[in-house]
Each structure stands twice: as C-alpha cells, then as structure tokens.
Amino acid sequence: MPPIPVTFLKGVKTARAAQLAQLGVYTVDDLCNLYPRSYEDRSVVRKISELREGEAATVCAYVRNTDTRMQKNRLSITSIRICDETGEMNLSVFNGKYPPPALRRGELCAFYGKISRDSYGFHMTNPAFTKYADGWNAAFFTIQPVYPLTKGLTQNLLRGIVAEALKTAPPEYETLPIALLQKYRLMPRGLALQNIHFPRSAADLEESRRRLKFEELFTMQLMLLLLKDAEDRVRNAISFRSAFADAEIQRFTETLPFELSEGQKRVWKEISENMDANRAMNRLVLGDVGSGKTILAVLAMLKAALAGYQAVYMAPTEILAEQHYGTIRSLLAPFGIRTELITGALSAKEKKEALFAVENGTAQCIVGTHALIQPSVKYFKLGLAITDEQHRFGVKQRALLAEQGNTPDVLVMTATPIPRTLALILYGDMDL
C-alpha cells in the first residue's frame, strides 16, 4: 500500500504539513512512529498541602482571583491565586497563554504543572488546565505524550494530529512471530503503538516500550545475521589451508619461551579453522590487557604469510604501531618473514621503500596506523587484516582492500572489558 501523505488527515493543510516536515514527518506512518520524548502523568492528583517541590502534579482547586499586567515589551504576566480545602498557591501565566477571561473567580479547575516554591508558597508556571463543567474531562487526567516540536506546533495540536493518524492508518501488521509474542508475553504491535502514544496506564506504557524495544533489538539482530550470512557467502574468499604452514606454526609455538594457555589454544584453533575455510573470516577476540591477544595475532599473520599472502596489523597510535612492529618482526624474522612499518613518522625515503616492498610482495607482514588503508598503499596479495576496536575494520575499509582483488579475513582485537552480551550486540556481525 502506498504511503498516505499527512495532508490526507483532517486539519493538516500545506502549511501544517511543512511544519511537520521540519520534524521529518511526511506520511501518516511517520506520525505513528514519531514516538514521544517524555510523558506528563496527570493522573497524580494532590491536595495543595500534599505538594512537593520539584514534582509534577495535578491540583483541583478554585480560582480565587486573577491579575494581568502588561510589560513594556508588550508581554503580559497573569497571576492567578487558587485554593482548595487544604491551602492556597499561585500560578503564573506568561504572554497570554490563556487570557484572564478564560478563568473566572470561583471556577473549579484542574491544573497540571511542575511545582516550585517561593516566599509565598507553592507555585506553578504556565500550567495546563481544564474546567469542571457538569463533570471532569477524563482525558485530562491521563498520561499525556510530550513530542519534539518545531515553530508553529504545540503539544495539544500535535497530540490531536497523532491521534487522527492512529485512527487513519491501516491496521498494523504483526512483525514478530506469534511464538515469540507468547513466549515473552509481548503486546501486539498495533496495541503497543497505540499505547506508546496514549497509554491507558503506567503499566501499559511500560509494556508497550518493552514490546517496541524487543522488536527493535530483534530486527537489528536479524539484520546482523543477514550481514554475517552475506559475509560468509562472499566471493573471492581466501583459504589459508596449508600443511606446511601448520607444521611451521607448530615449530613456532615450540620456540616460544612460554606455553600457550588453554584459552589461547582454544581461540587459536577457532581462528585457524576460520582461516582454512572458504569464506571470509570476521572474528572478534575479546581479552583483558596481558591476556595474550598479541601472540594470537602473530600466529594469524604467520599463517597468512606462509600461505603466500600478506597480513596487516593496524594499531590506533604510532607508538603502539612501533611497539607491535618490533615484537612481530623479532618473532617472525627467524621464519623468513619480512615485516614492514608504515606510519606518518617515516621519512619520505623510508616510506617510499616500505611502500615498494608492500607492492612487490617482499613485505609479507605490514604494521601501521590507519595509513595502511590509504590509496597510496598498494598490496601485492593481501589476505588478512588485524585491527582493534578503536579502528574497527568496517565495510568501507574492507571494500577499499577488496577493490585490490581479494576480500581479506578480518580479526578485531579488543581489551575493552565489556560484557559478552553487549559484545554480541555491538559486534553481532562477527564471531566472538
């Protein structure tokens, strides 16, 4: 069904549509999805003696007197004194929000606003109000949405337009499987949308929020799974499977002055299996500082180099790049692997020599900063990119390297102590 323009709604003409456009609202569906930024709970009714400074509350009281004064700048201030059986308080209304004839002495009204206190007692500024006329207007004593506004729009006006949109919009189709609704006791989408705008109670508002948040996270996870599936199906994916490389890696680990921990062995096994597969690796290694992530990066770079490919390690700063360069070069040199450093601190001559070695393939492992993905860096046969969470290797960076002929495997190293669940959300398109 084609989108319904806002001008289809009663009372929304061209000028009003232009105001709504300032909020990014062009269709009835846009209005339905313009969620409130906050709420006014007018169901909390208190006596004047029960009020507390700083809270927002509704007070039912009689108008005792009103006094309007014009200022030199043509602005008006109306002072209103109200009372109930427990006390009195003052209201201030600026700039003729509602003129004195709107409220008459002796009228019973309900006022809603934030409570402040001065030397005269409790006080409200520009409160919302309704009069008692053969009964109360029940709609006033509800939870009211507060929307983002633009010039020419008021809360009451926008509430009315949204209410009209909810009545006009076609029935909401259910976006979640019935099994999920039942399992997690989620509100149907149509009801959730109605209640997020005009909740019948605080409990209904919370349930509608829970439903819509669940849907948003569920949709995001599905998109990440689709992205991961697309990554898995990527063409030109590299397999680093090599019996020679595996034998050399075994020899490398035996020359280390320490033995890999069980955790390191497990993670390396997963990384190695990913690199052997005919699909692009996209893996996050999460570990505290000093947990041994660097040696895993060295193992991956060695495996790539022994299989005939180049590997890059991107560090967030030049200092870290130089430190990693020294470590990686000293570990891999005995195995005939040449490592180059590319940073902005290199002299023109050093940079030219390094770039030449990278382009002709004599440099198998390259360490540097974000300069590694600049157009001036031409890789001979790039197969592996290692980075950290501060320089996450995203779609754009990967595409830049893919343009050179291959889709490199990606390994992201992070020491950030984030919970596993949060990591799965942030890096849901990766293996963890």
TrEMBL record:
Q: Which branch of life, at top level?
A: Bacteria
Q: Does the keyword DNA repair apply?
A: yes
Molecular functions per Gene Ontology: ATP binding; DNA binding; DNA helicase activity; hydrolase activity
Recorded hits in PANTHER family, A to Z, give: ATP-DEPENDENT DNA HELICASE HOMOLOG RECG, CHLOROPLASTIC
Domain Helicase ATP-binding residues, every copy: 274-432
Organism whose genome encodes this protein? Candidatus Egerieisoma faecipullorum
Keyword DNA-binding present in the record's keywords: the answer is yes
Keyword annotations of the record: ATP-binding, DNA damage, DNA repair, DNA-binding, Helicase, Hydrolase, Nucleotide-binding
**GO terms classed as biological process:** DNA repair
* Protein's recorded name: DEAD/DEAH box helicase
InterPro entries referenced in this protein's UniProt entry, alphabetically: DEAD/DEAH_box_helicase_dom, Helicase_ATP-bd, NA-bd_OB-fold, P-loop_NTPase, RecG/Mfd, RecG_wedge
Entry's Pfam families?
DEAD, RecG_wedge
Q: Where are the transmembrane segments?
A: none
